[in-house]
Amino acid sequence: MNILITAFEPFHGAETNPSAMVASRIPPTINGHSIAVLILPTAFHLCVEKVRHYLERNACDVVIGLGQAGGRKCITPERVAINIDDAVIPDNQGYQPIDRPILKDGPPAYFSQLPVKRMVQAMREASVPSALSNSAGTYVCNHFMYALAHLAYTTYPNVRTGFIHLPYAHEQIDKDDSTPSLSLDTLVKGIEIAIRVVIDEKTDSHEALGTIS
């Protein structure tokens, strides 16, 4: 199996992005399966084009996107991406779409093709804080997850796609700052567990991991 892990460069003036920090520490093989890493620009359209070009040149079975969700307390596999860009800040190219569909004729949403509940369960069993997310936001991460799923659906039907948001890494937060964060070792451990789940499982569990509000 060939697995592509994508991550984003820092944005909005930050010096680091936990997704890139984690991706740089993922081993080149896991359980005998090949792992490639691609760092993407934090830019609505450029990030998708970079992956499109990669898939044109390389065989791939799974693409797992990683991104930063500052303020979250744990690793959150995303269940769904919605067809809207609504950026509260510009991307790294200065582009700031507001209330714009990602694809004018596209479906309202695309669901992850990965076993997101099993990922959460496996991380929790390994004492890695994790929760299922039902909103990937309306910034570049959601745009990428939606556009990647559409690309797979229309052009690469055998490629499974999905996205995982990461909280801040400890290294990004001042010691006196109360903003939630996890150690880089914990983040790497969690993503490696998620990759192993994707390798071993093609169907998801039916445990209730939703929320009331």
Automatic annotation (TrEMBL):
Record's SUPFAM superfamilies?
Answer: Pyrrolidone carboxyl peptidase (pyroglutamate aminopeptidase)
What keywords were assigned to this record?
A: Cytoplasm, Hydrolase, Protease, Thiol protease
Q: Which Gene3D superfamilies match?
A: Peptidase C15, pyroglutamyl peptidase I-like
- The protein's superkingdom reads Bacteria
Pfam families from the UniProt entry: Peptidase_C15
Main EC class the enzyme belongs to: hydrolase
Its recorded reaction(s) are: Release of an N-terminal pyroglutamyl group from a polypeptide, the second amino acid generally not being Pro
> What Enzyme Commission number(s) appear in the record?
3.4.19.3
State the InterPro entries in the record.
Peptidase_C15, Peptidase_C15-like, Peptidase_C15-like_sf, PGP-I_bact-type, PGPEP1_Cys_AS, PGPEP1_Glu_AS
Among the GO biological process terms of this entry, one is: proteolysis
Q: Which PANTHER family match?
A: PROTEASE FAMILY C15 PYROGLUTAMYL-PEPTIDASE I-RELATED, PYROGLUTAMYL-PEPTIDASE I
Query: Into which family does the record put it?
Result: Belongs to the peptidase C15 family.
Q: Which NCBIfam families match?
A: PRK13197.1 (NF009676), pyro_pdase (TIGR00504)
**Protein name as it appears in the record:** Pyroglutamyl-peptidase I
Lineage runs: Bacteria, Bacillati, Bacillota, Bacilli, Bacillales
